[in-house]
Amino acid sequence: MVATPTSEDPTNVGITKPTKRATIAMEEGRYDEEKGEGSSSSNGGATDIKDSQESGLAGAKGSDQNSQHRSIVRQGTAESNVEGLGGPGMGLPRRMTASEIEGRTLKKSFTSLLTPQHRLKPAPGIGESMMNVLKYTWLNVLLLLIPVSWALYFALDRESKGASLAIFLTSFLAIMPLAGLLSYGTEEVSLRVGQTLGGLLNATLGNAVELIVAIIALFHCELVITQTSLVGSVLSNLLLVLGMCFFVGGLRYKEQEFKQTAAQLNTGMLTMAVISVLIPASFHATLGEDIQDNVERPDLLQMSRGASIILLIIYLGYLWFQLKSHTFLYADENEAEEEPTLHIYVAWGTLVLSTVLVGVTSEWLVDSLDGFTRGYGVGKTFVGLVLLPIVSNAAEHVTAVLAARRNAVDLAMGVAVGSSIQIALFVIPLLVIIAWIADKPLSLLFDPFVAILMFLAVLIVSYAIADGRSNWMEGYILMNVFVLMALASWYVPDLNSNNPAQITKSTLFPDEYCRNRDFFAMLVGGGAGSGSGSGSA
């Protein structure tokens, strides 16, 4: 007898189970074939033989059909190993291959980067958008000074005392509205993309003005301005902006609450930045005068570049934490969904044009610094710590204070503290890497006065936000601490660039060393050698 195929047989996948009648017919046909023609001697033998033959033919035909069906199953199974579940004609859905799944995942991820978080209302037309740009802030009145500063730069003698003052003031005031428009264009473009890409745009371009000014100062070998302007932005955001937010919000509300976990994490990130500044300073202080400057400089530069790479990696982890894994810690529950106020072409045009104008006007500003500081006795430390941060952050200052006034403290904290984190962990190390590529001696070795101010600012802010609440008194204290630091920076004298040997006793990387390293090293070495020779004599 032939065993009836069952569903447990792996070759019978997808085969319909034979009916009971077909099974009996197959069994009888096979039985009669084995028995033969001489198995029956009764009166009905002929009839039995005929029936047996017909049953045998039916059984053979059924067996052939079953074998053919099994071959189809085997063929379908072989094709399914290549194409997925169910081959051609099997009636089952096709399984995607690994490459197809990976391609679809990448396409979905790329689409999510460009898809807004929520459906946006139709943007206004180009004409209305341009009017919105002009009416964005009252500081736009100062845009009229852009052509004035350009004309003065080319028409006047930049070395003269009066000309340098005029160029510096007009460029200084013209950058203030440009910084606001650059931020405005960035926000409008960010609305058209996904949350992650929008966050990256804001994180990258949020401090574009500070970055542009610092890069131009770096290529002019204004190392003091480069370092102090960035530290000054951190001090301005942590003390002046945050203090004004707490003060203005506290006048309207007795007490304001914010997310304590995110605030403490932010102060931890700032502490990491301060540590990266203090380590080179402690290294330099430990060596003292026991080692030659020409030996110490390469070590400090290599240390600074390695630390900068580590800081950039830390900042990337911070962005992932903020934009992907723990977005709930930074989401403002009171903030209403924003709607576009600019046409997409106007938004991109505002962003690009503002960036170009900031770059060119900053060039005139930095180029007039030497004549301005020497002619009027203003120290570069004061200019970098106090004046330039006010220019770069004027629009953000207003935004943060208005947010605190309507009780959106988390938004105000994000503007003030978030901007400080970006400068400390992204802009400063990025500039060190850029200087490395451009062969400029910029390091993380800051002036001790500047490094101590940064440490004290982070320390007092960490105490102010430790309890997750703020009031007007805390803001009042922070603002006055900034005033004290600004007052102290006014009396910090500039280094005497006419005596390089005297400069190296105070700093390893003065501006003159950047401008002419070969001559500077020869002059310092000659002075040191003659001094030692006369001493031995």
UniProtKB/TrEMBL annotation:
GO biological process: intracellular calcium ion homeostasis
Disordered: region residues: 1-94
Protein's UniProt name: Vacuolar calcium ion transporter
Topology within the bilayer: Multi-pass membrane protein
Top-level taxon of origin: Eukaryota
Biased composition (Polar residues): 1-14
Keywords: Antiport, Calcium, Calcium transport, Ion transport, Membrane, Transmembrane, Transmembrane helix, Transport, Vacuole
The family this protein is said to belong to: Belongs to the Ca(2+):cation antiporter (CaCA) (TC 2.A.19) family.
Record's compositionally biased regions (Basic and acidic residues): 27-37
Transmembrane feature ranges: 136-156, 162-185, 197-219, 231-251, 263-283, 303-321, 342-362, 382-404, 411-438, 444-466, 473-492
Task of the protein: Has a role in promoting intracellular calcium ion sequestration via the exchange of calcium ions for hydrogen ions across the vacuolar membrane. Involved also in manganese ion homeostasis via its uptake into the vacuole.
Domain Sodium/calcium exchanger membrane region: 164-323, 347-490
UniProt xrefs under InterPro entries: CaH_exchang, CAX-like, NaCa_Exmemb, NCX_ion-bd_dom_sf
Molecular function terms from GO: calcium:proton antiporter activity
PANTHER family cross-referenced by the UniProt entry: CA(2+)_H(+) EXCHANGER, PUTATIVE (EUROFUNG)-RELATED, VACUOLAR CALCIUM ION TRANSPORTER
UniProt main location, coarse: membrane
Annotated compartments: Endomembrane system; Vacuole membrane
Pfam families: Na_Ca_ex
Example of a GO cellular component annotation carried by this entry: endomembrane system
